[in-house]
């Protein structure tokens, strides 16, 4: 039997030992995909600290550089807590505000962001809405799906998976228009669609 020439490392999440080939000896950190997902989630939270909204009591996470000034989880809570001061300034709150979008923010590429405080894979407390729709659908219909990964005792859509818009309209986030697939399958699908469009020119 050939001698193993790789390295034996210790997983940073579960503490188990695992072997890797020489070219991965200096960058491997986890022993499995499940541990990798947890490690990535921890990385996103590494520079964040929890804080409690003084208006609603919700625990959210913000960058530690904002720890001294972050006291509200949203503008709605800020305006609500300000009460009379907000009214004197003529501020409208929540749905009465002309700029209220229901917690949704358009993305320059046509997608939609949704506020999702505390989500381990959020960016500035926002997650693409099509991923949240697919995630919630799985949690309600198939909570044991292999497309879900567990982080901190809760399950979330695997960040390595892609949610495809069947009709290619990026803000059409109805569940019947969404399909979960791997990144490679998603790329192959778009390559086929692109070739079909070019052949019709």
Question: In what range is the share of β-strand residues?
Answer: 15-25%
> What's the number of extended β-strand segments?
11
Which regions contain 5 or more consecutive residues with pLDDT less than 50?
84-91
Describe the biggest sheet? 3 strands, antiparallel
**Going across the major beta sheet, what is the strand order?**
5-6-7
- What is the global morphology? flat
Helix content: 25-40%
Order of helices and strands: EEHEEHHEEEHEEEEH
Mean pLDDT: 83
Question: What key attributes describe this structure?
Answer:
201 residues; alpha+beta; two-stranded antiparallel sheet; 11 strands; flat
Give an overview of the whole structure:
This protein has 201 residues and is of the alpha+beta class. The protein has 5 helices and 11 strands. It has one domain. Strand 1 and strand 2 form a beta hairpin. The chain is flat. The termini are far apart.
Short description:
The protein is built from five helices and eleven strands.
Indicate the topology.
Elements: E1 7-10, E2 17-20, H1 33-45, E3 48-52, E4 59-63, H2 75-82, H3 84-88, E5 104-106, E6 112-115, E7 126-128, H4 129-141, E8 148-151, E9 154-157, E10 161-165, E11 178-182, H5 183-199
């Amino acid at each position: 039997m050939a001698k193993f020439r790789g390295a034996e490392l210790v997983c940073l999440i579960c503490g188990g030992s695992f072997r890797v080939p020489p070219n991965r000896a200096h960058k491997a950190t986890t022993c499995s995909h499940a541990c990798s997902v947890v490690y990535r989630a921890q990385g996103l939270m590494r520079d964040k600290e929890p804080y409690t909204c003084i208006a609603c009591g919700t625990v959210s996470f913000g960058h530690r550089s904002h720890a001294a000034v972050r006291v509200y989880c949203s503008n709605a809570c800020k305006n609500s807590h300000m009460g009379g001061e907000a009214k004197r300034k003529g501020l409208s709150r929540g749905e009465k505000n002309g700029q209220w979008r229901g917690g949704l923010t358009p993305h320059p590429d046509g997608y939609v962001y949704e506020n999702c405080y505390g989500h381990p894979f959020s960016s500035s407390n926002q997650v693409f809405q099509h991923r949240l729709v697919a995630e919630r659908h799985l949690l309600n219909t198939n909570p044991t799906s292999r497309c879900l990964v567990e982080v901190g005792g809760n399950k979330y859509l695997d960040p390595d998976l892609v949610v495809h818009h069947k009709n290619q309209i990026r803000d059409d986030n109805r569940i019947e228009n969404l399909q979960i697939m791997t990144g490679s399958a998603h790329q192959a699908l778009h390559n086929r669609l692109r070739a079909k469009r070019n052949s019709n020119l």
